[in-house]
């Protein structure tokens, strides 16, 4: 019913040479999976032309406004104009390093919708929050901020990425059971607003996903794919992760 979604978040890693080498080595694994590449914005065009339409493009962030005097920002409309169809919002690195609070993230989610991009809303607790027993409360607070701002309906055409902060770039992944429990919590929260939306929304997992652990994660009923950082920079590793998402459906 839900198509698997695997998105590559390349963060601040790219060069023309690296993109060309990646695309030369890339072998699209399955047509049952939506594969999305989110390079740094300036490389969208290079990546899109090199892949020749086999994959979707996304951006890692957008500004809240459509245009204007916001030095260094790019808008969701600009990302769409450059060929992006997806947009990551509220990544924990943006929340932690750029001071994005729940209200800003809600504004960015709205901006993505306004421009016709599919938002991938990142939520996730820190290690301290998990140890304090506040993991669910944190994730639901982050989700509710967007739900209260945009309503439930747009989630039918959005994705939620559960990315526990302690699993990002650490090599420590959430166990399939830990991830599945949080994904179910997220889906239940959406179901309380709108059952059809909860059935349609794709909830993907992020945090040290690798080819070796992907299938165990993606085999869980409420895990519809992944948001992949480090491992998405290697074409063979990332293709294996995408294949696991097809197999785990
Ligand atoms: P890693 O896959 O490198 O842990 O990063 C996850 C992430 O932050 C994806 O957005």
Keywords for this entry:
single chain, 249 residues, alpha/beta, eight-stranded parallel beta barrel, binds 1,3-dihydroxyacetonephosphate
Description:
Helix 5 (102-114) packs across helix 7. The protein has 249 residues and is an alpha/beta fold. Strands 1-2-3-4-5-6-7-8 form an 8-stranded parallel beta barrel, surrounded by 6 helices. Helices cover 44% and strands 16% of the residues. The chain is built from 11 helices and 8 strands. 43% of the residues are buried. Bound molecules: 1,3-dihydroxyacetonephosphate (13P). 1,3-dihydroxyacetonephosphate is lined by residues 9, 91, 163, 168-169, 206-209, 227-231. 1,3-dihydroxyacetonephosphate binds at residues 9, 91, 163, 168-169, 206-209, 227-231.
Q: Would you kindly provide a brief summary of this structure?
A:
The chain is of the alpha/beta class and 249 residues long.
Helix amount: 40-55%
Which regions have little confidence, pLDDT < 50, spanning 5+ residues? none
Bound molecules: 1,3-dihydroxyacetonephosphate
Proportion of β residues?
Answer: 15-25%
Main beta sheet, described? Answer: 8 strands, parallel, barrel
State Rg: 17 Å
Number of strands: 8
Q: State the distance separating the first and last CA atoms.
A: 9 Å
What is the global morphology? globular
- Helix-and-strand structural type: alpha/beta
Multimerization state:
single chain
* Succession of helices and strands: EHEHEHEHHEHHEHHEHEH
What is the spatial order of strands in the main beta sheet?
A: 1-2-3-4-5-6-7-8
Total helical elements: 11
Mean pLDDT over all positions: 96
